[in-house]
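QA checklist item 7 of 12: single-chain prediction sanity check.
[x] sequence parsed
[x] length recorded as 371
[x] structure emitted
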Amino acid sequence: MEIETTASPLRFHWSLSSAGDRLRGARSRAAMSGTPDLASHAEFCRQAEESGIESLLVAFGFHRPDPIALSGALGTLTQKIKFLIACRSGVTSPTYFVQQVNTIAALTGGRVAVNIVVGHSPHEHRYYGDFLPHDERYQRTDEFWTVCHALWRRDGPVSFEGRYYRVEEAKLNTPFCSADRQAPEIYIGGSSDLATELAVKHASCLLRPPDTPERLAPQVQHLQEHGVEMGLLVSLIARPTREEALAAARALIEQPGEAARDVHRDFRGRSDSVAFTSSYALAEENRSDWLTPTLWTGAVPYLGAPAMALVGSAEEVAAAILEYRRIGISQFLFMGWPDIDEMTFFGQEVLPRVREAEAPHLPGWERRQSG
């Protein structure tokens, strides 16, 4: 396989959403507990550090613990792992949010990044007093991040007046503390045109659900032309052999049953997220569950849009990751079942194969070999 030379190795992240709760996605959100199991989460963080994972997504939602508070607690129990904190505009003021993120950075040595999420469930948004429709949420988010970036630049008191936010002479005495950055790295989740526009304006990476490399390539190129990376949010079912991986995939959808399908039919009908609804559409409208020999949609009707998965042996999954790298995908955000076992196998069997294959295509490889 031909792999293009790039400046940096692939970067890998994992979702903390289901730590200690294997089939959380099969239940309705109303039935999920938002009380964190700190011991399970801390164990997951330590295993992520050992497995070569750079950061853990700490998601936002009424059915979850607060991502800022949870990241702060876990930051005191870990040494290397970063926390990719999900944030929705309309929940708090941009000034206060920057203050929160900067405090986490001060407590963890800068181990924090931010995942911009515009939201996918209008009924849940109303729990927080947010009644804006889909497109207006993007407009408000644009204003939110305009203020945040101005505060991180620290180029004087910030004044801003827009349609959704107004701040006057805003300043913070809590700077962003990091050895190599003046502000957190910003990711945006989504696959709509509005998400792409927002990423170009405010983020360094767009995180979106997977598709075939052929269909993703034009969007990757468009983002690269604007200096923005693309990453994929995709699940993993990797095993020593393909037969074992396929058996694990079949077993995964047998356990939740039809009740889980009903949960996600209802969720799809109430969601206005392009990323989520398009993933459900890919799963239900294709004649096959396989978009490629390794990209499987079979779990989506049972476990939700993030359950689109790379399935196969360690060699096959590594090859699929490298094929995405070939078209310019530079980062991956994974989840699995059970998460900690999948992550451990990834670190032991998949990641070394990826690193070995990409090494000759990184700048300076010949010099390192000759040295």
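[x] summary fact logged: The chain has a mean pLDDT of 88.
[ ] second reviewer sign-off
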